[in-house]
Each structure stands twice: as structure tokens, then as C-alpha cells.
Specification:
The protein has about 140 residues and is of the alpha/beta class. It has a single domain, classed as Glutaredoxin. Helices cover about 25% and strands about 25% of the residues. It has 4 helices and 7 strands. It has a 7-stranded mixed sheet with strand order 2-1-3-4-5-6-7, with helices on one face. The protein is globular, with a radius of gyration of 15 Å. About 30% of the residues are buried.
């Protein structure tokens, strides 16, 4: 019976579920979420800001030097900031032993932060347990 239900039919073909903690007044966070939804991610959000949001990040293994404006959790990985969809998919395909990915700050031209055609160079970092990081992918200035 479940296989024939309309809800099951609607869910088929959609990407992974990601839960995002964000300031409810942040438009760039909402724009990043829209990018994820447009490529099939199922996104849920939870309002959080200030000290509570920072505590959530730190408690879940995001080092302070890697923080940005919003934090997601997808399939056990943390996604910090304006991480491109391609890198989230790569993370989920490769499944490294890691906390997740981070794009610290809010680099111009990263997803939802201005046109990619005018982006500044930025790195997507793989965050390991204990807070160590390494470059996962680099995006050159456009």
C-alpha cells in the first residue's frame, strides 16, 4: 500500500534531506536553501541566531575559523556556509571520515552570494574530527 501512495510517488527522485539552522532574517541563507531545493534536495529549516547558532556549530565539530551564516546537516555530515551543490554531492558520494564541509565567511560569487561570473576565489574545506581542515575543492576567481 505504501508503494502506491501519492506521497511516496512525490518523493521519488528527490535528493537527500538536509536540515538547515539559520537566522530567520537572513536572505542569503534563504537563497542558498532555494538553490538546494531547485536541484531536488528536501530542505527543512530551523530558526536560530547569535550565541545559540554559534554553539550549535561548535558542538557539531565546526571550528570557529570555518564558520559562516548557516549550518546544515545531511546524512550525518555538517555543511557550513555557502557550499556548492556539486561539493555536497561529492561528499555524499565519497563518504570520507569527516565532520563535513565548510566555506568560511561569505565569499562573493559562492552560491547565493552574487553572480558566479564575478566570483572571488574561495576554497571549500573538508573538516575532519578534532577540527583539522584540508582543501576539498578550490574555486578560482572568475
Amino acid at each position: 500500500m505504501l508503494a502506491a501512495s501519492p506521497l511516496r510517488t512525490l518523493a521519488q527522485g528527490f535528493g537527500p534531506a538536509i536540515h538547515v539552522m539559520k537566522d530567520p532574517n537572513c536572505s542569503c541563507c534563504s537563497a542558498w536553501i532555494e538553490i538546494l531545493e531547485n536541484v531536488g534536495f528536501t530542505v527543512t529549516t530551523e530558526p536560530s541566531a547569535g550565541t545559540l547558532l554559534m554553539r550549535y556549530k561548535l558542538d557539531n565539530g565546526i571550528p570557529q575559523e570555518m564558520v559562516s551564516c548557516h549550518t546544515g546537516r545531511v546524512e550525518g555530515y555538517m555543511i557550513e556556509g555557502h557550499v556548492p551543490v556539486a561539493e555536497i554531492r561529492r561528499l555524499l558520494d565519497e563518504r570520507p571520515d569527516a565532520v563535513g564541509l565548510a566555506v568560511p565567511g561569505m565569499p562573493y560569487g559562492s552560491p547565493s552570494m552574487g553572480p558566479e561570473s564575478e566570483r572571488e576565489a574561495y576554497d571549500v574545506f573538508l573538516v575532519r574530527g578534532g577540527g583539522s581542515t584540508e582543501v576539498f575543492t578550490s574555486y578560482a576567481a572568475a
